[in-house]
């Protein structure tokens, strides 16, 4: 649609799950954008809402889950939340595709890799005959599978884990997507293979100018792939910044905790730390900072007021933190007042 529209704009995204005992606000008012050619890294511990965010964009939230009506997900300016299930099916696997941690969730064990690729190409590119086969081989070559002409007639189980994930990426590319969502695509792979896959994704992005949303719990991986980073905690984005600022000037105490838990990141032989405690299940409106009970810097107001994403220093709009300690160039009580004011302006009840 409009050339000005970002590739993906997610606004006020709220996704809830209804269980017998509670309503889980798995994604609770999340806002972000992804431009063409940009990789947004989404990082956070288990249970922070990363995968549910991805599933919400993909239209894959199933009962007892629900994307709340005030949520907006625009792809190329087009509102996705209003799409019917059949329209969504058309969008998935054409404009947006997803790569999961386990390649075997995307590969069918009873068909050869080549047949799966060809089927996808037939659907999306209207190719047939030798052109179809050649295009399929070309795609396998593009994702770095050696001896592609022979391997195309092999079954998924004949591929190693790394090669399977490459085949999944080839399948995703066969759809010619504008947005690729990767949910922990390298977590199951060993470090060398992981690095190769990350490099492959970077190459693909440059060649095709697609947007990538890359989900991981690993801060080290984020540093390799992301242009921007959104740090998620208990359903909320608690910090968002260009990757360089995030590492040079991490703001949120939660981000600092994640950085301290990267092996090898401890100056002076400090012990590898992990953040004590667990991510709480967000089962009510945010009336306070959800990280406060685990936060080494929490003070009284943190238990009384939900922080809003505000610039970490005045005017630095591309680096925000939802923490009452920021903007850091303000006196603490003034910063708290800023959050209180932002809070009443927002849609939060
Ligand atoms: N089908 C479901 N029913 C109920 N609750 C769910 C469902 N799916 C997800 N949740 C809840 O939503 C929250 C966010 O889960 P999500 O899978 O997005 O976390 P994540 O950040 O991707 O974690 P991980 O790193 O473990 O993949 C969790 O509290 C989870 O229990
Ligand atoms: Ni997940």
From TrEMBL:
Its main location: membrane. GO terms for biological process: peptide transport. GO terms for molecular function: ABC-type nickel transporter activity; ATP binding; ATP hydrolysis activity. Keywords: ATP-binding, Cell membrane, Ion transport, Membrane, Nucleotide-binding, Translocase, Transport. Residues 8-259 form the ABC transporter domain. PROSITE patterns: ABC_TRANSPORTER_1, ABC_TRANSPORTER_2. GO terms for cellular component: plasma membrane. It is an enzyme of class 7 (translocase). It comes from the Archaea. It is found in: Cell membrane. Transmembrane segments: none annotated. Its EC number is 7.2.2.11. It holds the Pfam family oligo_HPY. NCBIfam families: oligo_HPY. The complex is composed of two ATP-binding proteins (NikD and NikE), two transmembrane proteins (NikB and NikC) and a solute-binding protein (NikA). This is Nickel import system ATP-binding protein NikD. The lineage of its organism: Archaea, Methanobacteriati, Methanobacteriota, Stenosarchaea group, Halobacteria.
């Amino acid at each position: 649609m409009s050339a000005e529209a970002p590739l993906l704009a997610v606004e006020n995204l709220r996704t809830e799950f209804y269980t017998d005992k509670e309503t889980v606000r798995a994604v609770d008012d999340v806002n972000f954008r992804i431009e063409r050619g940009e990789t947004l890294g989404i990082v956070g511990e288990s249970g922070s809402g990363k995968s549910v965010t991805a599933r919400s964009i993909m239209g894959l939230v199933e009962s007892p889950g629900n994307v709340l009506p005030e949520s907006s997900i625009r792809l190329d300016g087009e509102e996705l939340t209003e799409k019917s299930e059949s329209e969504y099916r058309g969008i998935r696997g054409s404009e947006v595709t997803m790569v999961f941690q386990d390649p075997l969730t995307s590969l069918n064990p009873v068909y050869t890799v080549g047949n799966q690729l060809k089927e996808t190409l037939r659907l999306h590119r209207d190719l047939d005959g030798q052109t179809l086969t050649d295009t399929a081989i070309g795609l396998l070559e593009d994702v770095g599978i050696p001896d592609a002409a022979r391997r195309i007639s092999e079954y998924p189980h004949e591929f190693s884990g790394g090669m399977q994930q490459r085949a999944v990426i080839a399948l995703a590319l066969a759809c010619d997507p504008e947005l690729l969502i990767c949910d922990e695509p390298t977590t199951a792979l060993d470090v060398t293979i992981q690095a190769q896959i990350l490099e492959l994704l970077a190459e693909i992005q440059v060649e095709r100018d697609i947007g990538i949303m890359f989900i991981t719990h690993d801060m080290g991986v984020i540093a390799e792939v992301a242009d921007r980073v959104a740090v998620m905690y208990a359903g909320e984005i608690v910090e968002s910044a260009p990757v360089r600022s995030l590492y040079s000037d991490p703001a949120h105490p939660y981000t600092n905790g994640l950085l301290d838990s990267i092996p090898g990141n401890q100056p002076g032989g400090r012990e590898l730390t992990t953040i004590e405690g667990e991510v709480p299940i967000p089962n009510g409106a945010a009336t306070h900072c959800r990280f406060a009970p685990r936060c080494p810097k929490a003070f009284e107001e943190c238990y009384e007021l939900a922080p809003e994403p505000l610039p970490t220093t005045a005017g630095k709009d591309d680096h925000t933190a939802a923490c009452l300690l920021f903007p850091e160039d303000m006196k603490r009580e003034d910063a708290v007042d800023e959050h209180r004011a932002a809070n009443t302006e927002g849609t939060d009840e």
